[in-house]
Amino acid sequence: METIVSLPVEMDAAHRRHFLGGEPIVFHCHHYNTFLQRSIQDAHFIDSDPFLIGAAAEVAFAQLTSLIRQEQCSNEADRRELAERVYSWSGFGTLDFSGLTVTGGVMTTPNSHYAAAWNAKWGAADRPVCLFTSGWISGAMSAIHDRPLGDYHVDHPSCLAMDGTQRCAFDVTATPASYTKFEAVGAGNLTDHGAHPFPCKNVDSEGVYNAVTSMPLVGDATGSIPAFGVYLTHHYANYYNRIGFEMLHNAIDQFGDEGRDVVQPLLVEAGHVCAFNTFGGIMKSSEWDALIAPSLETPEDWVHGIVAVVNSLGWGRWQATEVSKHQATFVVQDDYESVGYRAMYGNAKFPCSYLAQGAAAGIMNLVYKGDIQSRPELTPEFYRSLFRSHDAYAATPLKSRAMGDDVTSFRVARV
Amino acid sequence: MIVAVAGQDCATKLRLRYLLPQPVDLGFLQGIPEGQLQIHEFSKFVAGALDHFKLLVADEYLVTGSLGGRVLEITYWKERDSVADRSLRMVEKIFEAAGMGSVKYVKRRSRGDRIETGVDRRAAADP
Residue A229: how many CB atoms within 10 A of its CB? Predict the structure, then answer.
């Protein structure tokens, strides 16, 4: 099966985190990627384009600058090839930098994760949606040409997500970019920790971790990663962190606590969407049937099984320390949201691991309310019946690493 | 006979889940023309796990499943509405050549919540 040549990924098993070029990377699927972007863009009181683009430029610039040094890419052609390889390997689609010079140029591509995802999820877009790619190209150009971050402006005049468009186009000019420039924070501070005990004899969590991380989950010739029944990306933890937290801070700056009260549920719901589609897809996948299903006996095993897979996604070390149909407790060490928040902004004043909060509730809703064991179709109607009914499970933060606690944890129970 | 249950992957491509009368083995997969096969040796990592496979027939379809299992999932590469009968017939011929019989296509309920065959997935997956 054709795949992109491998890259020097650091698999930090002790922390259940993954790094490439110093940037923490995490698996997420297209449902989460597009839902999160749309949730941010739909908040019209926030000018989000500058940070949606700027956050991508931040991580691409930091990662490629590091990789160029690491791989000793001294000439421009090697650097361009490296950038193309990283982008495709990550599952974002394909890019061809060969038509760009130090002064810029025009780049087009027939393969875009964000555009294809938007189309699949919501139909034709009314404006270009590949803001991540725009920022990524800008950051990559700075890294390739040894220029400071923000030296390249990228316009995105046409997009595959729009009706009648065959390619995404990006106009790159060597003029100051208009996006927000952020300083990359890299891995952040991780904890020295051991695993918390969890009550499950049937799931071999360590074996599942080793099996999943041994799989070649990398972009194919079209820069796509179809696996577990979904389309995955090796995305940047600090991209998600930056765009979510910038949205939150912007709302708080404008409206105080009321702004926070508006934004927090949106970010938690993005976690629900992630769980529903990604975890639901995983639990219905042929990979699940082969690796995990043979050892499962009880609904609680299903919870522990999906948690074992989550540990392979680079999100930190997840454990369900208590599980029943009535409630569960999830303990997460080095969750990427908390680690990222502290590195970017210092200690948080409130729990802010929204993806983890939504995902923990999502697991319980899938297993105990949605009977994922019977392979239901993951339709929008089914989503609403699981997450918007009076007896849905919801997660309440107990501890927050972002606030300085030793771990992040949640209690999940029916509302 | 093979039962095929229609579904949809998350990018609107047609995905069929074929419940086979006999377990899938390496010989069957290697007999699929132009297939690029990838094996994930899960049994090396987890006791009781089955080895998983992905077989890509470029521009046509992706086959996944467990070695020793009786379920094949095939995702047809084209958009759901434009999957040509030719692709489906191509797969049917592969099953026929392997002596597995004909394919019976099963619909879902109109609201799409459950598979109406009531097939027990664990029984179907067990060798």
Answer: 25
